[in-house]
């Protein structure tokens, strides 16, 4: 909560960002995977939308988007000219 303008949201609003449909499975996912949250009381837990998105994006697995791929000639040069 470093930014005073930071948007804090509840579990129902964060579930779609995590690909979860049920609150019970979302809580299990949050605790198992270390999703950042703020406990403001015994039953009051909120999430920073920006922090959750940063957490999710840091765990991206996969290829580079098509627009960011190096051209074949650049790839060959990076590989020392070998095909």
Shape: globular
Largest sheet: 3 strands, antiparallel
CATH topology: Arc Repressor Mutant, subunit A
What is the helix tally?
A: 4
Measured by DSSP, the beta-strand proportion falls in: 5-15%
Describe the protein in words.
There is one protein chain. This protein is of the alpha+beta class and 83 residues long. The protein has a single domain (1-60), classed as Orthogonal Bundle (Arc Repressor Mutant, subunit A). 43% of the residues lie in helices and 13% in strands. The chain has four helices and three strands. It has helices spanning 11-18, 23-33, 49-58, 72-78, and strands spanning 8-9, 38-41, 44-48. It has a three-stranded antiparallel beta sheet. A hairpin with a 2-residue loop joins strand 2 (38-41) and strand 3. Helix 1 crosses helix 2. The radius of gyration is 19 Å and the shape is globular. It starts with 7 loop residues before the first strand and ends in a 5-residue tail after the last helix. The model has no long low-confidence stretch (mean pLDDT 79).
């Amino acid at each position: 909560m470093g930014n005073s303008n930071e948007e804090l949201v509840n579990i129902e609003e964060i579930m779609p960002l995590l690909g979860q449909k049920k609150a019970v499975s979302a809580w299990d996912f949050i605790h198992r995977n270390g999703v950042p949250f703020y406990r403001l009381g015994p039953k009051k837990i909120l999430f920073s939308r920006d922090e959750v998105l940063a957490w999710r994006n840091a765990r991206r697995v996969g290829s580079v988007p098509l627009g960011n791929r190096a051209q074949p000639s650049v790839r060959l040069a990076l590989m020392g000219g070998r095909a």
